Amino acid sequence: MRTAAGDRPKLTDRLVKAAAPPAGGRLNAILYDGEVKGFGLRVTKDGARAFVLNYRIAGRERRLTIGSYPDWTVLAAREEAKRLKRLVDTGRDPLGERVAVRQAPTIADLIERYLAEHGPRKRERSRREDDAMIRQWIAPQLGSSKVADIRHAGVDALHRKITAAGTPTRANRVVALLSRMFTLAIRWEWRPDNPAAGIERNHEEPRHRYLSGDELRRLTVALAAHPNQRAANAVRLLLLTGARRGEALSATWDQFDLGSDLAAGHWIKPSSHTKQKREHRVPLSAPARQLLAELLAAAEARAVEEGREPRFVFPARSGDGHMTEIKGAWAAICMTAGIDGVRLHDLRHTYASVLASGGYSLPVIGALLGHSQAATTQRYAHLFDDPLRSATERVGAIVSGEDTAAEPAANVLEIRSR
Asked: pTM, whole model, 2 decimals?
């Protein structure tokens, strides 16, 4: 079907329709156009027709399929061939670019690599949260898109969609996760920028909930009455140490040095168990040591019966693992105590509030809580309102002469307006 260059006719709809399948067992034949060099019609042995363009780039012969007939008319295919030839003249490789786009990683590929390489570095709870956000929002909305095709406007639209669903905080978390993933995509040279950067987040009101003295008393009574004392003891340890829930529930006995007297006792949290990814050594109070000593005695008694050494402070009811969740027990305890709107993490805030009320500084509180950044501890600055107010009232009473308990030798200044 191929003729000499000078004899090649200009392709027309009539020629395309009349083109016969190749003879002699060949899979296809090409009828080239007499007007645009390299442009032609490919006909398969089954009679399928498609327009192609042959060109050379960097010494290589390339053949690109423009589109099938009659989806593409002869006129439209010829104009596309001209456009592609102009790209070749500027040094571009249209077929190579098309293959690169087809093989470019998608968001699904980014998710897979993120979970495989970055996921194991995160805490178990963080991994579960990432998985939930990926399944609910990221994969369904963006999974089939190319990583290089995602734009700022698309991420912003997803943020607004999640917000409109009534979960503004979740919307912020999804954008934060996408930002981390795109940061890795830049490192892996999958794209040059981060389209999730600069997204305006929803306002989040910081939580300042902590238990009052009366609530603490009611909580103590409710803990003693709760039928699940394993969960109650976990809550007690959270209250006495200010630890994170995951740190307490996954704690193993080799992390504790209970000491032989009241002056000793530490909890050495390994870097793999802490949020800041570094070892955290924290002293234990006498009540905390007493609680742990009682738990250890019970664990050793069970170990004798089971014939193995105790490992976890709060072992699972079955298997070799540890307790992973006490939300149900906490909800029941709060109901018994008549406490509303308190999360387990608020026990950590309560621990900090007791320290602040005792006059301890933010650096001391941060060291006990295991903060690596002073800015993290700064969120507890509001807890100093009461002791600060008490202190300033004390100064005011002394200066105004209203404090009868002041030392007689103190110089009292009467504050008068001019």
From this structure: 0.55
